[in-house]
Fold these 2 entries.
Entry 1:
Amino acid sequence: MSIKEQIMKTLKHEILTLTLKPGTILSETVLSERFQISRTPLRDVLKQLSLESYIDIYPKKGNLVSFIDLESVEQIIYLRSVLEKEIMKYLSAHLVLKGVHELKEILDRQKAAIHEVDATEQFLNLDDAFHAALFRLAGREFLWNLIQQSNVHYVRYRRLHMLRQEKLEEILTEHQRILEYMTRQETDKLDALIHHHLREDINSLYLQENFSDYIKV
Amino acid sequence: MSIKEQIMKTLKHEILTLTLKPGTILSETVLSERFQISRTPLRDVLKQLSLESYIDIYPKKGNLVSFIDLESVEQIIYLRSVLEKEIMKYLSAHLVLKGVHELKEILDRQKAAIHEVDATEQFLNLDDAFHAALFRLAGREFLWNLIQQSNVHYVRYRRLHMLRQEKLEEILTEHQRILEYMTRQETDKLDALIHHHLREDINSLYLQENFSDYIKV
DNA sequence: ACCACAAATCTTGTATACAAGTTTTGAGTA
DNA sequence: TACTCAAAACTTGTATACAAGATTTGTGGT
């Protein structure tokens, strides 16, 4: 992996985990000192981060870690729920046994993760792994990757929501029911479940009340 | 509009209209002479074009206009057909009168465009305008813009298909029927129509036979 | 104390010299 | 003629000096 890719991976990770808080200034000179590299390749990295909405570039002023855009979150959730409904319907008819085992294994690991010390971190990774597997098994990995490129706001939104422990149990249960309905080919029940699974919290005011300084106005 | 934005717009247009054919070399020095600007801002433009799949950058070798990736075309068509089915269903229930007029006007202009000298060009723009209006009227402009960012392969694919005059009449007719079913709230007929409207030609071998040197292997 | 305004100090944007890798060229040799 | 292999001519990648704009600071005047 090239140095630029490493730097980008590092910065993306710090932004997604909110180690770098929304609004933080990312100065080219400061970063070039931190990573011991000149401004030119760093500018390449910042350009790409900007195109993927990780940061906002204000010409001749500076670069800020972007604030969480709830409009983007709502639109991505809608996109995913529409797509995943269709994908589940497809998988109900075409899912192979090997795929079922793969999904079950992810759920087992997720169950085990709940009571680990870094529960949230592990849980989020496995949540992504579950949904990514569904896309991949349906031959739609391309679209999963497409969505991932516009995911900064959604990922951070979800992370803040999951700080509440009780959410983890709820999500695991829903995952298990999704797999259940799919294998039993109860497609009619899937729609409502997916809708709830992805969409439930978007209208709650939890974020606005507790993390208002992270949110785009 | 900044100089960089102008250059980007120019290059994008030339690539999408196939003025710059897939495989064409875009050398930094040649472009910097053409646009009378140094390599640095040009590299910014090329970086962005690469992230949006307009070009492929081979480090230390060169930059090529990307070949048309049929896998990407199929995935985008699937994405659009799934999304647009849902959007039509929504609009059947919520479309306001003003929206109907707006869509009708686009179709009138499209009808008039068929026999113009630059029919294909005008027709494609109005085709986009029609579908964009549907997204916008459903409050999903965000997703339309998201799709547009991954559209290089699909746009060029469609352009080559539309070289056949008879396609234009067919598309216009389907647009008219879409609007018709929507206003009559015949949602059951919409699914199949959208599917056909977007998906029809993907399995034909027309492109592979006539433009094999534009296609990614 | 407060205001105005200019200068200093930040920021990113651009041009350019040089580094490093790849491809092409062509001379020398069998 | 055909082949080898090194040198030259390309390509993009990086570092850096300087340009240009935005912000902050601080000083002089009231």
Entry 2:
Amino acid sequence: MSRSESSRAQPSQLVGQDAVAVELSAVIVSASPDGPMVLVRQPDAQSPAALPFGPLEPFHRTIEEGLRAWVEELTGYDLGYVEQLYTFGDANRHASARARAGRVLSIGYLALIHEARPRRSQNSNWHSWYRFFPWEDWRNAEPAIMPSIRESIDGWIAEAPRDERKSREERMRLTFGLPDERWNEELVLERYELLYEIGLVPEAHRDGASCWAPREAAIMAADSLHADHRRILATGISRLRGKIKYRPVVFELMPPRFTFLQLQRTVEALAGVELHKPNFRRLVEHQGLVEETGAVTSKTGGRPARLLRFRREILVERPASGIGLPPLRQRSTSRR
Amino acid sequence: MSRSESSRAQPSQLVGQDAVAVELSAVIVSASPDGPMVLVRQPDAQSPAALPFGPLEPFHRTIEEGLRAWVEELTGYDLGYVEQLYTFGDANRHASARARAGRVLSIGYLALIHEARPRRSQNSNWHSWYRFFPWEDWRNAEPAIMPSIRESIDGWIAEAPRDERKSREERMRLTFGLPDERWNEELVLERYELLYEIGLVPEAHRDGASCWAPREAAIMAADSLHADHRRILATGISRLRGKIKYRPVVFELMPPRFTFLQLQRTVEALAGVELHKPNFRRLVEHQGLVEETGAVTSKTGGRPARLLRFRREILVERPASGIGLPPLRQRSTSRR
DNA sequence: TCATATATACTCAATGTTAGTCTAACTGGA
DNA sequence: TCCAGTTAGACTAACATTGAGTATATATGA
């Protein structure tokens, strides 16, 4: 910080800095009967699995257009709904940044599509996102991996220096909700970051972060991804789990016609929690999010279900309406 | 798009691209009795006013650290609460990008501070953010500038090609809430973008965008800012207005001790709408956001008010609790 | 035909919200 | 000293929303 203030603050001074590589990565989500899926590429057996990504090129008119172009080229998908997630730039979290001692900015995007269309590339595959975050699926019961996570975190808390112990306990309680707190499904990124810091995910060791846990402890069923792509994916899941509550984005994932239960199962799959059926129906009806097509389907097993369609008009009527998961509502804590 | 897929998808390919300049800009907000303030710099009489900004440098360990360093150097403020807003990269919205035909990425951050501390730099000044967005302050009445905005937009709608007319009308209704819809205070960015597209803000002409309105129509009391800084500011206001509803961020702007009414006035100033006093008090009390200090103050005019302090514990108890402005609650639209 | 599975409708208590009114405690000026 | 003005703070009734449960309808398949 030696140069004078005024000489640095001018836009023209921006030119001379070291080259920055900008990488665009896409969390492309779809919903299948088996749960929420994310598109992952593995160009060849040597490379690690990765989200579809590519560098921002000079001819891309906007960042989003650059992302769309890369996804189209790599996977054949023509994206519909797209939103920017976050720009990451930690030097040490990116292999190629470490290798060339430069900086890589990683701009993450979230895209939602109907899975129906065929994919072009042999290298792209849909995976349940719970493959990468097995501790995030609480639909049926506590995930099988939770006890071992809890045990590791308990160890990390126990070995804390005295002054840090309480804050570690609180961080565990906040993110993983244990033992007395409820599960907050939106804190996907916060949970991942905690596991990363402790060293329970393999990429923490790969990145050379100073970890509490030994590399051997970091097995975990969770597969890791190229660079910071698992972090970007966590950001995408967090964002989507939050957004379905106040914007009608689920419908980007639904087929043109669907039943109430299909819609509920999709929301549950995304949020990783189960919902109360009658209340869910009432909410969706009450908000004017759907309308009947008149058709019914008998493929559901029992009584035939009405087929619904999304009321696109709602987007201009009340764009703020969403699905409103009950579990996240605030508990009042009266403190008179 | 000519090179083969696999050769482009590797991280090592990121190196060779054209230099990208990365600019970090800060929307630094504080609350004064006169309303919400934002820190704006004007290095010299020739330069346009700008948010504090500077390039990302190789020695910045993270993007956020780079931002903090720039703000510290330019303004003397040591930022507390900071969050990333968005990364902008439209080629034509940035003067220096046009000048050198390269790309400028603009990463915007939002920072909240107590105004109390003195500022170091002569070039930095606090301005009400409504100076840059006079149409956003609906606390007392409809802003004085609204009629002329409405008139211009009406003209833009009237001159639309037939097939586009309806969508223009809906866009106006959504963003500016007229004539029948209610005002949605969160759509700051959407409103600004509409005004930009129509050509009612001077920077649209400066950027050479193809505008409906002639340059002369774009006077508007609103002062413009360097590059896309007014867009970044709009993003920051939108984010903050949304966030006070579900996170206790207002308290970052409050002094250590404050009265209920001070808190309410601050929230109102940020949101640009007025609130119902008894309900606001009940909400804040009920959420456990504050506790009494035991002290009172008589400086408020009438009956002495109790001085409150923020309960920091709430951050670990329920980080999701916020102030919850009534005007944005959803209206039910029953459609049985 | 009956068990079973799913779809859909209805109920009810608890809780939260909206929009008010009413009272309390201070200041400053007639 | 007393009253008008001003702000603080308590209370309430009407209404809407939510959480959790139960009951009924219409399919399939043994």
